[in-house]
Design brief:
Oligomer: single chain
Radius of gyration: 21 Å
Strand order of the largest sheet: 3-4-7-5-6
Length: about 375
Amino acid sequence: MSLVRSAALQNFRRCVESLGGDATHYARLADLPAGALDSDDLLVDDRSVAAVLEIAAAKLGRPDLGLRVGAAQELGMLGALAIAIRNSPSVADALECISRYMFVHGSELSLSVVADPDRVPRVVALRYSCGEGREPLPQAVDMTMLFIHRMTAFLVGDHYTPHTVDLPHRPMAPAGAYAEAFGTQVRFARAHADLRVPADLLAQPLVNADGALRRQALRFLSGRPEQPDSWVVDRVRAVLDKSLDMGGTGLPQVARVLSLHPRTLQRKLASQGRTFALILDDVRRDRARHYLTATDMPMAQISGLLGFSDQAVLSRCARRWWGCPPTGVRREAEKRRTLLASGETFRWADAAERGTSVTGRATGRENRGCGISQRIGPACT
């Protein structure tokens, strides 16, 4: 389970009630604890945060709910992290601060600067992720990406206009609603959640930044415990995740990015009980699950993006990962979307008792349908 501060739902109640909905009832359906909608600092299951947005959108018949909530959220919901961001010398410094301390807001959340997925010169992408192997739900992605967009606009003002906004799902609301919210072209069913921006935006100074306030906020944030995972496993995952669809997934290439000798990298991974091959397999499995459940990409294209020699390799891996072929994974995702759209009450504990939540890797035990998770969506805020 991944935890996130309840501030992630800032202004959810106000938005829902303005549309005539019962926010408290929807929170109960999503298994959110009492008070989560009215406090910023409760730690809650991020799957429930994502689920309450989907439930409310379905009940209200408002597929743009994620955009509405994202438009009502403010930078201050990040607490001390917001102070450090706002008082950074430049956009690059602010993003480095977010990358380093985002775990304070949510244990699996990340925002990073990556090479432009379209390989356009002098363009970079601000990439949002809700965590390795976690299937993002559309309303939560819409909400968070609009918050990131508005935060960036707040920091740099008129100097900021994204080239495009890329979302990893089909449009929930009319495409025009997205274009109006983001003020630019929005592309759907992409590999990642990206804001594509001019590279020189990173050097843009932030006006009225107060260095003393920033140092004070960073001292507070530094006093919090670091993430428990070993840095080497996380870094290898991150490098593979960014380079998978561009090649460069071999051990020597990844070691070079991390400024390590390949044998040194192997030893560090072994000390954590992992191997490079296992991590690459995990990253491929997670990316395959996204492509199969959130896009309409043909199987041959998915195979190529995963670095497989042909489609037969994808089929063999899918059976090993989930106990069914890739087409079965895609069918199961459609079933989950249908269940979610019906607004049926969902409880994680009930799902476990029914045996409908299955681990992502085949275990050799009897499968109930595909081995891919049957839950209404792991997470994303």
